[in-house]
Design goal:
This protein is an alpha+beta fold. The chain has three helices and three strands. Helix content is 38%, strand content 13%.
Length: 112
Amino acid sequence: MTPEEENEIAELMRAAREKARGYADHFGWATDRDIEEWGVVNALSACLESENKSFFKNIKRRGRLNDPPDCEALDIDGRRIAIEVTELVDGKAIQAYKAGAIYEWADWCLFR
């Protein structure tokens, strides 16, 4: 890797860190929301596959100018399906973060 490439990567990392919210950043990709949403859908897909509950494949990002939906995929019969990513964040967690307080995390599981 060249010094110029290293500098470019470091600058992208700094930009992402400056845009980070500090809460609910697990899937955060602050410099590109399309990649963030695609990553969430891929994580869902991997989780479903690990439980033998997968029902879609061939995930594609639609991009800012083409959403909603955020992504599309093919179901098990080859039909196109729409996937919209929605973030669930506890308002009390956001308030606690902004106040500099520690917040007890909630364990949410949607697929039990």
